[in-house]
Amino acid sequence: xxxxxxxxxxxxxxxxxxxxxxxxxxxxxxxxxxxxxxxxxxxxxxxxxxxxxxxxxxxxxxxxxxxxxxxxxxxxxxxxxxxxxxxxxxxxxxxxxxxxxxxxxxxxxxxxx
Length: 113
Fold this sequence. Notes:
The chain is an all-alpha fold. Helices cover 67% and strands 0% of the residues. The protein contains five helices and no strands. α1 (15-30) packs parallel to α3 (54-65), α2 runs parallel beside α4 and α3 (54-65) runs parallel beside α5. The longest helix is centred in the last third of the chain and has 18 residues, at 95-112. 25% of the residues are buried. The model has no long low-confidence stretch (mean pLDDT 76).
C-alpha cells in the first residue's frame, strides 16, 4: 500500500499515502466538527491498541497532521495519542521514522487543540 517506485524522489509520498491524505481532507470537508471529533476519537483510540509498521504509522500521522486547524481534540484523543507515542513509537526499529511520526503527531496536537 505504501510502496514507492525506485525513481520517486526521496521524501515523496507513496500513492497509498497520498490517497490517505486525500481521504482525511475529504473527512474534514464533509463531516461536521462533532462527527469529525468522534471519528478522530474512535480512529486514534483504535490505532493506540494495535501494532503498526513504521511506514504505515508515518503516513497515517502525516495525513492527520494535514487537517486544517480546528478545536477537535478532547481528553480521549489526547490519551490515544499518548498511547501511540508511548507504545507504537518506542517499538519502531528505525529512529528516523519515530522522529518523523512524533513531528506529525505534534503538528496534529497543535492544529486541533
